[in-house]
């Protein structure tokens, strides 16, 4: 009879982990497919490996946000889509819980950024489209700021030049749809 009765450790583990419904490995770890209700009100439905979210899954936050995609060791890693509570969303690459690689972010105001990401910031080459005006910035980004060679395209003209901290600097030119060009140089003024 004693060999059939669970050990006190397993009884405690079972009562402590009542919020999980799914597969386990012989060691009792979450392993395979499962659903979890976390103490903070969040939920996860997806794959586990040795107790960690690993593989494909959907994590729903109590605040209304959600992530559906790949996990590695409990962190967003691989391809996935994140819906934020303000209505914005990011669809693309993740590394170690950060937007990292290539992806598209649609902001709550309807603006979009499509391009490269590094450590959660727009970084590398990308295109930002301003919904209200239809204008778009195509070019370099550094740590979330418009920086490097780029083109700012408006409805009837465009600016080609260099940007620093989101502002044009140095030599550049305006090209108008009627065929005219204006060449010049942007200089930072002291205020």
TrEMBL record:
<dbReference type="InterPro" id="IPR003409">
    <property type="entry name" value="MORN"/>
</dbReference>
<dbReference type="Pfam" id="PF02493">
    <property type="entry name" value="MORN"/>
</dbReference>
<dbReference type="GO" id="GO:0005634">
    <property type="term" value="C:nucleus"/>
</dbReference>
<keyword id="KW-0677">Repeat</keyword>
<keyword id="KW-0206">Cytoskeleton</keyword>
<keyword id="KW-0282">Flagellum</keyword>
<comment type="function">
    <text>Functions as part of axonemal radial spoke complexes that play an important part in the motility of sperm and cilia.</text>
</comment>
<feature type="region of interest" description="Disordered">
    <location>
        <begin position="20"/>
        <end position="42"/>
    </location>
</feature>
<dbReference type="GO" id="GO:0031514">
    <property type="term" value="C:motile cilium"/>
</dbReference>
<protein>
    <recommendedName>
        <fullName>Radial spoke head 1 homolog</fullName>
    </recommendedName>
</protein>
<feature type="compositionally biased region" description="Basic and acidic residues">
    <location>
        <begin position="21"/>
        <end position="31"/>
    </location>
</feature>
<keyword id="KW-0469">Meiosis</keyword>
<dbReference type="GO" id="GO:0051321">
    <property type="term" value="P:meiotic cell cycle"/>
</dbReference>
<dbReference type="GO" id="GO:0007286">
    <property type="term" value="P:spermatid development"/>
</dbReference>
<keyword id="KW-0966">Cell projection</keyword>
<keyword id="KW-0963">Cytoplasm</keyword>
<dbReference type="GO" id="GO:0035082">
    <property type="term" value="P:axoneme assembly"/>
</dbReference>
<keyword id="KW-0969">Cilium</keyword>
């Amino acid at each position: 009879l004693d060999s059939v009765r669970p050990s006190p450790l397993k009884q405690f583990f079972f009562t402590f982990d009542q919020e999980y419904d799914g597969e386990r490995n012989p060691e009792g770890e979450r392993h395979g497919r499962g659903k979890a209700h976390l103490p903070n009100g969040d939920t996860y439905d997806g794959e586990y490996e040795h107790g960690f979210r690993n593989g494909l899954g959907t994590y729903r936050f109590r605040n209304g946000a959600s992530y559906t995609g790949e996990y590695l060791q409990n962190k967003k890693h691989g391809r996935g889509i994140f819906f934020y509570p303000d209505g914005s969303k990011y669809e693309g690459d993740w590394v170690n819980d950060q937007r990292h690689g290539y992806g598209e972010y649609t902001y709550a105001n309807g603006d979009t950024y499509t391009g490269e990401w590094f450590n959660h910031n727009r970084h590398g080459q990308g295109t930002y489209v301003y919904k209200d005006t239809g204008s778009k910035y195509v070019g370099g980004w550094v740590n979330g700021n418009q920086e490097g060679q780029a083109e700012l395209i408006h409805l009837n003209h465009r600016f080609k030049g260099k940007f620093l901290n989101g502002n044009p600097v140095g030599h550049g030119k305006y090209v108008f749809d009627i065929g005219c060009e204006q060449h010049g140089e942007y200089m930072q003024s002291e205020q």
